[in-house]
Amino acid sequence: MRYGIEQYDHHGILKTPIWLWLGWAFLTRAWVVFIVAGASRQEGSQILEYVYPNHTMLYFGLIMGLPIVVGMWLVGLRKADSDRVNRCVGYLRWISILVVALQLAHTVYLVNLQHWQFTWTNAVTLVLLCWFAIYLVNSRHVIDSLKTPKKIKTVTDQGHTTNN
């Protein structure tokens, strides 16, 4: 047995690892800033101006993070008998890799606009995105936790098999 019983939820589905949730939170940082700015009424516009002086970058970040936000929501809705949700969650690993690649390209574009001048924010962003991409590609726990659960076949009294 690869995983302990405590790593499964009450539906019998393998829980997603905490590092995956933290990586998704990093990918959706524009959404986090947007929600924090909306929650702090008077200072909200100042927060947005400070973090995203160019509103186009905020909108671009919101669009890039939207599939991850929807995927995080779907992970919370998973059950053993919800086929459509489980199929959508099965694609979430590849969607996450695609979003990481888009954000990497976007960050490299921003660094290019700054004439390759070093800034800590861009450096940390590039390192974290590269780390998360490697984690998504290599982690067996991520692959197993986002896999669609298999249905169990049971035999009825008449000898018929049913999917559960």
Which features does this protein show?
164 residues, 8 helices, 65% helix, 4% strand, globular, Inner membrane protein YfeZ
Notes on the protein architecture:
The chain has helices at 18-27, 29-39, 44-51, 55-76, 83-90, 92-113, 120-138, 140-145, and strands at 153-155, 161-163. With 164 residues, it is mainly alpha-helical. The protein has one domain (10-163). The protein has a two-stranded antiparallel sheet with strand order 1-2. β1 and β2 (161-163) form a beta hairpin. α1 packs across α7 (120-138), α2 packs antiparallel against α3 (44-51) and α4 (55-76) runs antiparallel to α6 (92-113). The mean pLDDT is 86.
Structural class: mainly alpha
- Terminal CA distance reads 22 Å
**Helical percent range?**
55-70%
Strand content: under 5%
Radius of gyration from the CA trace? Answer: 20 Å
Oligomeric form: single chain
Secondary-structure map:
Blueprint: H1 18-27, H2 29-39, H3 44-51, H4 55-76, H5 83-90, H6 92-113, H7 120-138, H8 140-145, E1 153-155, E2 161-163
Antiparallel strand pairs: 1-2
Summarize the structure.
This is Inner membrane protein YfeZ. The chain contains eight helices and two strands.
